[in-house]
Amino acid sequence: MGRIIGDGRIYFYIQDIAVLPEFQNKGIGKLIMETIKEYLKENAPEKSFIGLFAAQGKESFYNKYGFKKHEGMTGMFGVIQDNDVK
């Protein structure tokens, strides 16, 4: 499974690309990413920001679809704990 979240205008984030272990290495992740890329091609305006966080060791999978680390940009996140971002 995979999903895209965002504002539907200029910011899109690829979230939760997941394939059960017993189905990995069978082209399912590729199919998910190709479907997502086709959706973005049809729905995201030119120069939209498309972001994702890759699990460590999975960067090369996403590199094949044009995603790279960018100098000067740092991915960050927070988690709500006790009604505060930690």
From TrEMBL:
> Where in the numbering of this chain does the N-acetyltransferase domain appear?
1-86
Note the PROSITE patterns from the entry: GNAT
Q: Which Pfam families match?
A: Acetyltransf_7 (PF13508)
- Positions of transmembrane segments: none
Q: What is this protein called?
A: GNAT family N-acetyltransferase
Q: Which organism is it from?
A: Paenibacillus sepulcri
